[in-house]
Design goal:
Elements lengths: L13 H8 L8 H13 L10 H14 L4 H12 L6 H9 L1 H27 L5 H21 L5 H20 L7 H15 L3 H15 L1 H10 L4 H21 L5 E4 L4 H11 L11 E6 L2 H14 L1 E2 L5 E2 L12 E6 L5 E8 H9 L4 H5 L15 H19 L6 H4 L5 E5 L5 E5 L4 H8 L1 H6 E6 L2 E3 L11 E5 L20 H34 L6 H7 L5 H9 L5 H7 L12 E2 L13 E3 L7 E4 L10 E5 L5 E5 L3 H9 L4 E2 L1 E3 L10 E10 L4 H11 L3 E10 L2 E10 L3 H11 L4 E6 L1
Parallel strand pairs: 2-6, 14-16
Antiparallel strand pairs: 1-2, 3-5, 4-5, 5-6, 7-8, 9-10, 9-11, 12-14, 13-18, 15-16, 15-17, 19-21, 19-22, 20-21
Helix pairs in contact: 1-17, 2-4, 3-4, 3-8, 4-6, 5-6, 6-7, 6-8, 7-9, 8-9, 8-10, 9-10, 10-11, 11-13, 19-21, 21-23, 22-23
């Protein structure tokens, strides 16, 4: 299987892995001793993939050796798998090999277990039925595994061991033709291959990609492999020949240059075809070269020479030196055809540009791996998480100086701001460093956080303010109903670290206080309705008449003493039990004799009439009369609720009335009430009053109430007939801030 993937980039850097290996103390014969130590424990054991554990460890050690790992790093690969078969693994390994080896073995073992559990949880989610949530769950779980892998990487040795192990697992399935477990190949493609790429371990990166893709999309893999008419060995030889030719001829031209071959592998070809929607014959960089020169003028000199020797492909030239990509990437890109008309992509850059693209915080992976915007030319900005990886890439080369007495001491701090724990169902939960079981509960679900009363960590009961650690399994004990404790908001007690969880607890107590305020307001309103004998009225209808969206909004302002109950009393005027002089409003102008103006009582000319204050009728409203005791006929709008109540008690006193005919300019005028709801602002009252003035309507009374920036106004204006009022109210409604204007 190895020969199939023997091709790799000339820019691979195994030396950085060798530097990492030095972080383990070299011991005489450590590799042989570790294998001898592990052999009796592992020889008859198998992994959940079906592979023999000892053979797997042998292969992992061989991969580490290939990418530059020292004997000490190779020795660690055996000790990791021995942990599962020892009663006190740390104590036993530390005694035989030292604490450093023991720490590494246990940390790696813990991560192996967590990732295995994560895959099991993801596979369980795949049976849920709904495709969209399943895909979202799988994506989130994969991203959590990716972050968790790095969170456990205190000195990057764990990463090296896990990368080598995953590559060997893929090789095992390729060799045995066994079906690959769901999730394993996709996790390798989405987590391990990008990590290898970001760490510069190209050999591991492209082999993981090709193998994972082969398992995930076997038919596509076979189709692309068939399209590659040159065999891999021939293509590699062709690239090497071309590379040497370019290097020699550039040197002859006096251009100092390093030329590197960059042959593509199958997954990279498919990725480019999909990313740019290209056919296979449109992928120009199946064969590619990179030329690295000392200075910018040399870049353009090399480009000029390449174009003079080969036929450039039209529209396939990009000058990222003059116009760098948003992430700072700089290089010249061109595509030319060789003597056989085969396309070759050529990249030309300075050493500084190459170092920036390969190792800088500008994120080489954002160029190599299409971000959220794909291959369109723009690149998604690397986040804080990716910035950490950029620093770690440089730490790899400096590991010898940074390791000190304890390997990876400086690297450990890189991920101390986050921890990763598991639910009982093996779902991964990301939390801030120092988080407790209460933080965990709120992260899972807000309601679970509110009801949290106890917790088990790895099966043992712990206080709720116990800080959690990476890899622990947390189980929350919750009551059926209840809320959080105010102690949780006390930072000195250490119950909550997460800002999100603290915000949820504060929101709960705010809602509780609001509930008490609304209960107080409801009680006050209901008592008022009882006093007024209006218990049958719907509370939402009452609130709407007062300008509120619903009853709860009314209860809130009443409970806060921001809205006077007097406003409700005014709305709920009791029906007039007996007519008094104050209950009626004389006409502004006396009625003309003979019923020519004002109101006529049908069949009886001489009866005195009064307009009711409760509904303030005005022509041409439909009206009805009610005979009072000693005060003549009270005239109401026919839809007046007070009139209905009086008729229900004394229906025989209802009498038919009609409007008289006004005479000339001196006809009668009638007071009507207009209700306006608006956003309160300076000059609002003046603007509304000006509208009435321009329309020659006399304002004889104004009442205002403002609550939380909303103004309720009642204007009493005199009109000759109510028909004109509709047009005026429309003008008022168009004023700035006015929400509604209507006759009451």
């Amino acid at each position: 299987m190895k020969s199939l993937y023997a091709e790799h980039s000339a820019s691979a850097t195994p030396q950085v892995i060798a530097a990492t290996a030095d972080s383990l103390p070299e011991q005489a014969g450590a590799l042989a001793r570790a294998r001898a130590f592990a052999e009796p424990l592992l020889a008859t054991q198998t992994l959940d993939t079906g592979e023999n554990v000892l053979l797997h460890a042998d292969a992992v050690a061989a991969i580490l050796r290939t990418i530059g790992g020292s004997e000490a790093m190779q020795a660690a690969s055996y000790l990791v798998y021995a942990c599962d078969h020892l009663n006190k693994p740390h104590e036993v390994i530390a005694k035989a090999f030292g604490d450093n080896f023991a720490d590494l073995a246990l940390e790696t073992t813990k991560l192996v277990r967590l990732q295995r559990m994560a895959r099991v949880a993801q596979n369980s989610a795949s049976h849920s039925g709904n495709a969209a949530p399943m895909a979202q769950t799988a994506a989130a779980q994969t991203e959590s595994v990716r972050k968790m892998l790095l969170a456990f990487s205190k000195d990057l040795r764990v990463v090296m061991l896990r990368l080598a192990s995953r590559l060997q697992t893929l090789r095992h399935f390729a060799a045995t033709k066994l079906p690959v477990p769901p999730g394993l190949a996709s996790e390798a493609l989405q987590v391990f291959a990008p990590l290898a790429n970001r760490l510069g371990i190209w050999e591991v990166k492209w082999e993981i990609e090709d193998l994972s893709f082969r398992f995930l999309e076997p038919e596509t893999y076979k189709q692309v492999a068939k399209l590659l008419d040159e065999k891999r060995a021939e293509r590699e030889a062709s690239i090497e020949k071309l590379r040497q030719q370019l290097a020699d001829e550039l040197a002859a031209q006096g251009i100092q240059a390093t030329v590197q071959g960059r042959p593509k592998h199958i997954y990279s070809i498919v990725k480019k075809m999909r990313g740019k929607s290209l056919g296979f014959d449109q992928v120009y960089d199946i064969r590619a070269l990179r030329i690295v020169v000392p200075a910018v003028p040399d870049c353009y000199a090399a480009l000029s020479w390449v174009h003079s020797q080969f036929a450039p492909v039209t529209d396939e030239f990009d000058d990222y030196i003059a116009r760098p990509k948003p992430n700072g990437y700089q290089s010249l890109h061109t595509v030319v055809r060789d003597a056989g008309a085969q396309p070759i992509e050529v990249q030309i850059r300075t050493q500084a540009m190459h170092d920036h693209a390969e190792h800088g915080v500008a994120a080489h992976w954002a160029y190599k791996e299409a971000g959220a915007k794909g291959y369109g030319g723009s690149v998604t900005a690397a986040g804080e998480y990716d910035a950490k990886i950029a620093v770690l890439r440089q730490l790899l080369a400096w590991e010898r100086d940074l390791s000190g007495a304890h390997a990876g001491g400086d690297g450990a701090g890189m991920f101390e701001d986050r921890i990763y724990v598991l639910t009982p169902d093996a779902a991964i939960v990301e939390l801030p460093q120092g988080a407790t079981a209460v933080d965990f509960a709120y992260s899972v679900h807000t309601n679970l956080g509110h009801r949290c009363r106890g917790a088990k960590v790895d099966g043992a009961m712990v206080p709720l303010n116990t800080p959690l650690k990476n890899g622990q399994t947390v189980e929350v004990t919750a009551v059926k109903e209840g809320g959080p404790s105010r102690d949780w908001l006390n930072p000195e007690l250490g119950y909550l670290v997460s800002h999100r969880a603290r915000a949820k607890v504060r929101a709960w107590f705010n809602a509780l206080a609001m509930g008490e305020t609304m209960a107080k307001g409801r009680e006050a309103v209901e008592k008022l309705l009882q006093r007024e004998g209006k218990t049958a009225i719907k509370l939402d209808d009452l609130a709407s008449q007062l300008g509120f969206n619903n009853a709860d909004a009314l209860f809130e302002v009443v409970g806060k003493d921001e809205f006077s109950l007097r406003n409700i009393e005014m709305l709920l005027r009791p029906p007039e039990p007996a007519a008094t002089q104050d209950d009626y409003m004389p006409l502004k102008k006396p009625r003309a004799a003979g019923g020519k103006g004002g109101v006529l009582v049908v069949g009886i000319d001489s009866l005195m009439t009064q307009l009711a204050r409760c509904c303030k009728p005005a022509p041409p409203d439909l009206i009805s009369g009610f005979v009072t005791r000693g005060k003549g006929v009270s005239v109401h709008r026919s839809d007046c609720s007070n009139l209905r109540n009086m008729v229900n008690r004394s229906g025989d006193r209802l009498i038919e009335v009609e409007w008289g005919t006004p005479q000339g300019k001196d006809g009668n005028v009638y007071p009507v009430d207009v209700a306006v709801e608006a956003h309160d602002r300076q000059g609002l009252l003046r603007d509304i009053s000006e509208v009435f003035a321009k329309e020659k309507m006399n304002v004889i009374g104004v009442q205002t109430q403002s609550v939380k920036g909303t103004a309720w106004m009642t204007f009493t204006v005199e009109v000759a007939e109510s028909g004109k009022l509709a047009r005026v109210l429309k003008i008022v409604g168009e004023l700035s801030g006015v929400r509604s204007a209507r006759r009451r």
